[in-house]
């Protein structure tokens, strides 16, 4: 049996690139062809990571950004250790909506660690998109959060760094790690009980 040690949720308006961010991180790939279909509810994936010399299973929930799925999306906030709220620097609407996602998250998980993620940095760098969101406003807003990363799912810039920062912060948090250790002990007990009940089967 296995269980995720840390739960990360991705929030943000539709089309800001949440799914691309997750796939770049987990599978090291980027789809430059047909756009991804809109996420319904949330899509889940996991990756094994290291921090402070230890291995951890990290679960990532890529939530829907469409308003019509909001009621469904909220249930995925429960138990989240960290949240990545995504926006596009070339979309003022996505930045305005970002504040809504943060408020929604705080009503469910007040102590969740929050990180801002500006996606599609490659479009700004190449001049294919123009900045609409003022950098000073972003800097001021992000001061009350755990970090702000400018990422590109196309090139991979700052994607691994973002997720590694989150895991490192969780490992450094004694309250979070206490919960992780308690969950691991419980899992070991459940696993032992399961094996004892099915002792006639081979668990090779």
From TrEMBL:
PROSITE patterns: RAB, RAS
Entry keyword Nucleotide-binding: yes
Keyword match DNA repair: no
Gene Ontology MF annotations: GTP binding; GTPase activity
Keywords of this entry: Nucleotide-binding
Residues in coiled coil: none
Gene3D superfamilies according to UniProt: P-loop containing nucleotide triphosphate hydrolases
Stored InterPro entries: P-loop_NTPase, Small_GTP-bd, Small_GTPase
Family per record: Belongs to the small GTPase superfamily. Rab family.
Official protein name in the record: Ras-related protein Rab-24 isoform X1
Organism: Bicyclus anynana (Squinting bush brown butterfly)
Gene: LOC112046160
């Amino acid at each position: 049996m296995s269980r995720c040690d840390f739960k990360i949720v991705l929030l943000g308006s539709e089309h800001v690139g949440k799914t691309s961010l997750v796939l770049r991180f987990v599978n090291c790939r980027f789809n430059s062809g047909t756009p991804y279909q809109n996420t319904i509810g949330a899509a889940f994936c996991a990756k094994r990571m290291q921090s402070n010399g230890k291995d951890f299973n990290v679960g990532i929930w890529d939530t829907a950004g469409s308003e019509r799925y909001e009621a469904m999306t909220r249930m995925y906030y429960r138990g989240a250790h960290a949240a990545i709220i995504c926006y596009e620097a070339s979309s003022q609407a996505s930045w305005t909506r970002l504040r809504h996602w943060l408020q929604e998250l705080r009503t469910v998980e007040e102590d969740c660690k929050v990180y801002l993620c500006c996606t599609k940095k490659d479009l700004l760098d190449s001049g294919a998109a123009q900045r609409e969101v003022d950098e000073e406003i972003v800097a001021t807003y992000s001061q009350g959060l755990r970090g702000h990363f400018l990422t590109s799912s196309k090139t991979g810039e700052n994607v691994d760094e973002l997720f590694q920062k989150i895991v490192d912060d969780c490992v450094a948090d004694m309250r979070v790690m206490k919960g992780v250790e308690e969950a691991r002990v419980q899992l070991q007990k459940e696993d032992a009980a399961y094996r004892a009940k099915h002792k006639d089967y081979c668990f090779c």
